């Protein structure tokens, strides 16, 4: 029920934005109001469910997600997630949600504590692996202090988790793309990047790409990896593929010139 109404709301919100861009403000407002009504129905369903099943960790978790993502009621969402893990310490989804929230607001010890619990309960979940890896890379100075790691050790653990996520979900473009992107963070964390592995990661991302824009993006970034490795020939091949897709791209043509200069 929740997913049906949130998906309908997303469709209506997209239509509203399109109408607004085309200058049809009245119809855009109608679509926006319809979207809000679907979200309100989802909320009412959870509220009714919790009146009868207040001891359901499952309901508290998903109601928290709705409040956090759709109504921007973060404090209320956190209360529901905390209630969920109090009712059931094995509610890994709530631990993951609390990890995201607490890291976002700067409470890293709490955040990574909940992430640890989520991964301990569901170690093969690619979304959890992805979330922990990205938070390690974003908040790496805080992770170093909290875990007692060096920058290079933090990078290595983040990449281990990110690689595992990409292998578990090889068709999920966002996961495999972010794994490939993460190689670029090595140098600022005093770590040595493996550019050969990075190139393979971008090739895997291209295999998962859904659109020409995403394929172009992977060619450009694989080319940048080869430039970092000072492999002009391979870089040029990538940028040639990018230029073939987007002949008007000044950036692609400029990087192709840089690659040819390395040959």
List keywords for this structure.
single chain, 263 residues, mainly alpha, 14 helices, flat
How do the helices and strands line up, and which of them pair or pack?
Blueprint lengths: L1 H20 L3 H28 L4 H14 L3 H14 L4 H13 L3 H14 L4 H13 L1 H8 L3 H18 L4 H10 L12 H14 L3 H17 L3 H14 L4 H13 L1
Helix pairs in contact: 1-2, 2-3, 3-4, 4-5, 5-6, 5-7, 6-7, 7-9, 7-10, 8-9, 9-10, 10-11, 11-12, 12-13, 12-14, 13-14
Q: Helix amount, in percent?
A: over 70%
The oligomeric state is single chain
The description of the largest β-sheet is: none
Poorly predicted regions are none
Order of helices and strands: HHHHHHHHHHHHHH
Radius of gyration: 22 Å
Number of helices: 14
Query: Terminal Cα separation, in Å?
Result: 58 Å
Q: Would you tell me the overall average pLDDT?
A: 94
Helix and strand composition category: mainly alpha
Describe the fold and architecture.
The chain has helices at residues 2-21, 25-52, 57-70, 74-87, 92-104, 108-121, 126-138, 140-147, 151-168, 173-182, 195-208, 212-228, 232-245, 250-262. The protein has a domain at 1-53. The chain contains 14 helices and no strands. The chain has 263 residues and is mainly alpha-helical. The radius of gyration is 22 Å and the shape is flat. α1 (2-21) packs antiparallel against α2 (25-52), α5 (92-104) runs parallel beside α7 and α12 runs parallel beside α14 (250-262).
Short description:
This protein has 263 residues and is an all-alpha fold.
